[in-house]
Amino acid sequence: MTTATMPSTTLPADWRDFFALTKPRVMRSVVLTGLCGMLAAPVHLPFALGFTAILCIALAAGAAGALNQWYESDIDALMKRTAKRPLPAGKMDRETALHFGVGLGVFSVLLMGLAIGLLAAVLLAVSILFYVLIYTVGLKRLTPQNIVIGGAAGAFPPLIGWVAATGSLSTLPLLMFAIIFLWTPPHSWALALLIRDDYAKGGVPMLPVVASAATTRWQMLFYAVLMAAAAVSPWALGLAGIPYGAVATIGSAVFLALTLWVVVARAGTPAEMKAERFLFVYSIGYILMIFISLAVDRLIA
Fold it and tell me: For residue 76, is it within any domain?
C-alpha cells in the first residue's frame, strides 16, 4: 500500500466515527435505489419484511464503506478530500475498523438470508465482496478503468431490492443495474477531473491522472450515451409508462448536453471547471430522479 504519514496516537472513537466509516452519503443513494428496485417489483413485501430488506442493504453498504476505508487508510491520509476520515485522522485504529466492517457485513447477509431469502442474501454478499475485493483491493490502485469495472458494485442495490420482493430476476432489474453501471463512469470522472491533483497525490490511477483530460471527456460521453439508451429502455420495451419515459428522455438529454459541455469546454479555463462541476452535481440528481420516477410509474400503473 502507499506509504503515508499516519497519526502516532489514536483517540477514542465514538458513534460518529463509526457512522462516518459507513460512508453515509453513499449509503443514502444505495438505500434509495434499493428501495426503488423493491417498489418497482410486481410483488410487494409486508412492511416489516420490506423494512428488514432495506436495512440489510444499508448495513451491507456501510460494511463495504468501512472495509474500503480500512484498506485505503494510507491513501486517505494523503488526499485532502479524505484526510479527515476517522482512520487517517487518528480517531480509530485499523483493527477496530476491520472488525466493524466484517461484523456489519456478516450480520447483514445472515439477516437477509433468514428474513428474506437465499438469492437476495447471495446477491448482497456478492455486492460487498465485489466492492471490497474486486474494486478496492484488486482494481483501484492498478488500473484507470477501476471505476468502470468497480461501478458494478454500486449497481447491485436495485437488483437486490427486486429479488427481495420477488425471489427472482427479470429484464427490468437488469436494466436498472445497467443504468447505474453506465452512469458511474461519467459521474465519477466528472469529480475526478475536478480533483485529479488530489488523486495523483494519493497515487490513485484515475483516468484523468494517467490520461489526458480530452481522453477522459470523450470516454465520459461514450458512457453517457450508453447510459441514456439504458435509461429509456424500460419505456421503449413497455416495462414502464409514458410518465417515466418522459422523465428519462428529458433527464438523459440534459445529461448528454452537460457532458458535451464538458467535452467542448476549453481546458484550463473557469468554464472547464464550471462544466465539470455542473455535470457532477446534476448526475447525482439525475440518478435519483430516474429511479424515483421509475418506482412511482410502476406503482401507479
Answer: yes
